[in-house]
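Table S5 (text form). Sequence records supplied for joint modeling of the two-component complex.
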Amino acid sequence: MSETVVFIGKVIVLIGVFFDLLGAIGLVRLPDVYTRLQASTKCVTLGTCLILFGVFLMSGFPWKALLAIAFVALSGPTAAHAISHAAHKAGVKLWEKSVVDRYQEDEKKAKES
Amino acid sequence: MKKLVLFLVSFIVWLVLTWTLYYPSLLIGILISIIIGFWFADLFTQRPRHFFQIKRFLYFLYYIPIFLYYCTLANLDVAYRVLHPYLPIEPGIVKVKTTLKSEVARVALANSITLTPGTMSVALTDDGYIYVHCIKVYSKDLEEATRRIVSRFEPILREVFE
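The corresponding structure-token record, covering 275 residues in total, follows.
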């Protein structure tokens, strides 16, 4: 029984590492700050949570791993939001093929009025 | 009341982190939790009564599998876009409107938007608009984008946090 659980844990850690790798590839391939943040946040949050869950299964159910999952899932997207907001405030441009930027339009309107 | 809620939460976190019933450890945990409860009670929650309503926890449990489903979908979506040789992306920032009132609910909604397929919240305004960065823009219209992005989480989050 416990060997099966450990095996399942190893498989889950492997899947998590795969998603982390995808996040890294996205970080290299995508063109600008916002798209890179998208790829890295989504993949790294789920990947790290999966690794922690795999560790939870592998090494005798340490419940603090689940607590760590909760904190990672809370802080990952918050950090991404902070970085993207700061980047936009600092004037980092979107990729040149971007379709629309409602935020910039609204800021311009607010400045003019 | 606020202090009691924060005390309970921090003490449960302490119990899970240490994972022991060793007597001095418990004592230190209670002491630290009391100090934290007195210091930070006003920062932690505005409406402590909500912590004692079972219905909210049940809705939260119902929310978790839905969230996990969209999270997995988001990762497969990113995988497809990143590994595709031509990078099928069409990014842009659109504006959506939320009807959620409380701060916690809005934060939870923004975090959920960040972890769901192709979207990331860039800014929140006080009057309930969220600027969302989409990796592929399906609609620039306010109502259409709101229906696509916000409406799958909003009803559940309203039950949980408001």
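Note: Strands of chain B lie at 92-97, 119-124, 129-134.
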